[in-house]
Amino acid sequence: MRMMGRQTGHVSARARELPGAWKAVTVLNVLDGPTLEKLVKYLDHEDIARIRSLDMELEPVAAEEFAAIIEEFASRFVRRLRMVGDYRSPEGILEEVLDPDELERLTGGGDDGPPVWEDERFAAPEVLQPLVEREHPQMAAFLLSRMDPDLGAGVMKAVEEGRRNEILLRMLDMRPVSPGVTMVVEQHIRVSFIEDTSAARNAEARARIASIVNRMDKELAEQFLEALKQARPEEAKEIKRMLFSFEDIVRLSEKDRLVLFDKVPAELTIKALHGVSEELVNMVLEALGGRMRKMVEAELSAGNPPPEEEAVEARREIAAMALELAAAGEIVIEDGEEA
Questions:
Q1: Which segments of the chain does DSSP mark as H helices, in order?
Q2: What would be the CATH architecture of the domain defined by 242-327?
Q3: pTM of the model
Q4: How do residues 64-93 score in pLDDT, each as one tens digit?
């Protein structure tokens, strides 16, 4: 950095008048690589966005001005300085210490169309609430300030009281935000939304596949899982965790078996128990109420088994009911062996 000599009389006053972000970038510019990397790790997305969006020409700094800035920052984090010949831009600083993917995620790669606030996909409390709850309170306040009041009220209604109050109070003190910062914030929110919806789509796809596999013949299901394991082992693990057959009732706790079979009609239970192991029959019988248990035991003792396809279908129906109860949080299916 080139230091330009100036009269000292007005230097300290000018240094005090410089914007805080300008001072921060000036100090960051003279730190060596390892120190800079350590420091930037302590910055949150909001700090990085402010550095990235610094919208001004950064001119050479007078030695006296630089000394005044250093004095202001010294007590916090400046340990040693290294003067360099050419001034690096804020973006250049970020490029030096952040990997390309993280930089792209934070800053974006260009024009993404209309503002986030005008995108109809964002006009729902269930979409925006997770963002408001997850982001820094200042970011959440900024996001809320851009929402339609009715939408904002719907979002904040579901937010925990303490956090809700903090966000609303920050809105009172919010200052005008530069276009550069707004652009970076919009990109951050857009990427967060895409990541969330992508994860949701993946989960939905897995659930659909698991539902199909649960209804396949055992041999076909095993063939599919083996093929998936070879092609995409991590997906195979996730989907296998979501599978549940009638024989997997052993994975349920005694309490959860009671919950499940309290909802299964006696006729369906009778059909399902024909042709299964004695151990499984006894486990199911223990989950039945006294009157129903006697009815099921009597039918099993009568020796009139249903057609095999009806028994198989009954087991599939009960397995599907177990998955529905698990999805609703009424029972817990313990993980089986990983694929």
A1: 11-17, 20-30, 33-40, 45-52, 63-74, 90-97, 100-107, 125-134, 137-145, 149-157, 161-172, 179-214, 218-231, 233-242, 254-261, 266-273, 278-286, 290-302, 308-327
A2: Orthogonal Bundle (1.10)
A3: 0.41
A4: 666 666 666 554 443 333 333 343 444 444
